[in-house]
């Protein structure tokens, strides 16, 4: 790729409803990597808390982020490749996941609260209530250029978003 470092993990980040699971899953199929849903690393207490309409605190999130970071390290060490959907809303959260690795890249799903709310209203069967969206935006610290994020606008079809990511990634063998 452009900076001479081929990634072993892509962290697809953004607020609840920005499309992390959808995009990460399609992207993984497109590039032939494994897909991992970061929500499966939450302890049950975190899921119950969100389900009951309460936002998570930093203390709730640290163990969850450390578990995902360990999975990223394991994946890369095993010479595997994974696309991981994980909200990673704050810089300090992403620093735990990336911890200086050049082979872990951030993909930021960028969209307005209005658009995302309209998608969450019609989403069925998910533990995350749409009412938590405002707190997600309040917590969000969009990635800064030094994080080398791949930023994509989400007001398009899934296929167009995935192709945009693939083009920006410039993988040696997409
Ligand atoms: N580009 C898109 N165009 C239209 N609908 C989309 C698009 N991307 C995702 N969606 C829909 O928006 C909703 C939210 O997407 P998804 O569940 O993937 O988001 P998420 O970020 O993983 O959410 P959460 O963090 O709450 O799990 C879903 O119903 C999904 O089908
Ligand atoms: O940090 C957080 O607040 C959580 O990770 C949430 O973002 C959820 O996991 C997700 O968005 C719902 O599926």
TrEMBL record:
Which GO annotations describe the biological process of this protein? D-gluconate metabolic process
Gene Ontology cellular component terms for the protein in this record: cytoplasm
A GO molecular function assigned to this protein is:
gluconokinase activity
What is its EC class?
transferase
Pfam families for the chain: SKI
Its family? Belongs to the gluconokinase GntK/GntV family.
Known pathway: Carbohydrate acid metabolism
Q: What is its EC number?
A: 2.7.1.12
The catalysed reaction is: D-gluconate + ATP = 6-phospho-D-gluconate + ADP + H(+)
What UniProt keywords are attached to this protein's entry? ATP-binding, Gluconate utilization, Kinase, Nucleotide-binding, Transferase
Know the name of this protein? Gluconokinase
What organism does the record attribute this protein to? Answer: Bradyrhizobium ivorense
> Does the entry feature the keyword Kinase, yes or no?
yes
SUPFAM superfamilies in the record: P-loop containing nucleoside triphosphate hydrolases
- Which Gene3D superfamilies does the UniProt record give? P-loop containing nucleotide triphosphate hydrolases (3.40.50.300)
